[in-house]
Amino acid sequence: MILLTPLTFGKTITNLQQKFIRSSGVRMRKLFLLIGLIFFSSYTFPQYYTEFPVKQITFFNHDVKNPKFFNNSYYSQNELLFESYVNSTINIGLLSYDAEKDTFFNLIKLTDNSGQNLNPLGIRLNNGVKIVFYQTNIKGTWDIAYREFKDNQWGTSNILVDSSGDETNPSFILDFNGYDNSIKIFFEKDSSIFMLTKKDSLIRADTIFAKNESLKYSQPTGYKVLVYDNKKWKEEINCVSKQTDKQNKSRLVLSTFWDMQKISEKVLIDSGEVNNPKLQLEDNYSYTFENKLTGFSNIYFMDPWYLNYSGVQRLIDEPSGDLSSFSSSFTPLVITKTNMGKTVNKRIFSPYTFILKRNDSTFVRIRNNKNYSFPDSMIYTKITNNKPMVASVGLIPNWQVFYYVWEDSIDGRINFVGRKELLPFGAVEPEAVIKDFQLYQNYPNPFNPVTVIRYDIPSASFVTLKVYDVLGREVARLVNEEKQPGRYQVLFNASRFSSGIYFYRMKAGSFVKTNKLILLK
Predict the structure, then answer these.
(1) With 0-12 CB in 10 A as exposed, 13-18 as middle and 19+ as buried, what is 115?
(2) Do 290 and 322 sit in the same domain of this protein?
(3) Predicted TM-score (pTM) of this structure
(4) Residue 441 contacts residue 455 (beta carbons within 8 Å)
(5) Is residue 477 a contact partner of residue 449, using CB atoms and an 8 Å limit?
(6) Domain ranges, residue 459
């Protein structure tokens, strides 16, 4: 079985017995994710960060809850969704963030004061379309609805799943391929788990876990990839869910589908009191979940490629108190010859946040990757059911901007407070790791209109890097000079080109390699 990632797209690998292909392919993709967000500088920035004080970021005269940043693996998530409570009505609101002014602004109300609207999810597709999903009871039962931003305007609200039952708790299926603009989400209905697929006008729902007399299901999370099997590409869906039996014993179970045909189902965790499984986009894709194995609930993680309990580790060393509501955001920290291996090969959650409940008090914990000696903070909050979030919200010169956001009671109203952090990014120190010539897959791909191309030079060489259209005509010359040993990255701005498939070719001595890139406008 072979994963299709930006590194392996278009290739056929025939040795299906080598399981390491999955993990190594994903790790290489993560390396591209790191490099793709690195701006082009001639030096390496120092390993430090800038910390800002906690501040109030919304000032509504009514309660707001459940902050959710837009979900997208490839770009900064600079829009914040939330629930807005006015009397018996709950609306879905949206705020944008300006990184240069450090301001959340441009309030948009996505629902129209009808009924209750909860659990918003937002995603930005590669073609620029944005979609917000949520659950609504405007028809008397809970339904899944959505609203789409296209051609620079928000369309009308539409019911996506409408039945006599209650559809609740939508959650995104993380797409590891990045080439398909179809949307897939899990949702709960009558203690079963379903998967909803929306692509253009096509909408369908499939059963993932079906309840029976002794088992109920809730809290789905998961991902999709493409696999190569029996000379065909197939879509693989992996869903992890909480399973509860008649004795109220809970466990985590995994169901895997190829082209919507179930190929396996297994129990992952069968001890303790498990809750809230989540798939995290980090140095390696990992599931986190809460489990009460001792007197307190802690947060654990496991590698999705090696799904067995022996691979489970406790993520946070907290001797007392209950931990919950984990949220993390991937960051391209400075990569150097001394820490590059750690960045690529270790599970790193940085930055991240969670809730600590201790002695009848609730705290928001804010932490960063301990390998880089970031401090951690414990911030008291009056809200006991807090769900803090952290995400990359923008770029400013030499820095990536992150925001932690959570709820707190201020003057009798629940508003959002938060803390900003700036984390540096810079060039790679390559001397200890460059052994061979290499031309990497551009990132992002597809792109619009700017993408990054990275290449390695192990010895002094004259290097050319050119871009061609599908007819073989040269359309851009990115590199044409002598290069010293090192790792390089170059920006390709295709703003003057039309959408389509292009090729970029690198020549250095006897080394020649060509890759494909896709421009979507």
Answers:
(1) middle
(2) yes
(3) 0.71
(4) no
(5) no
(6) 434-519
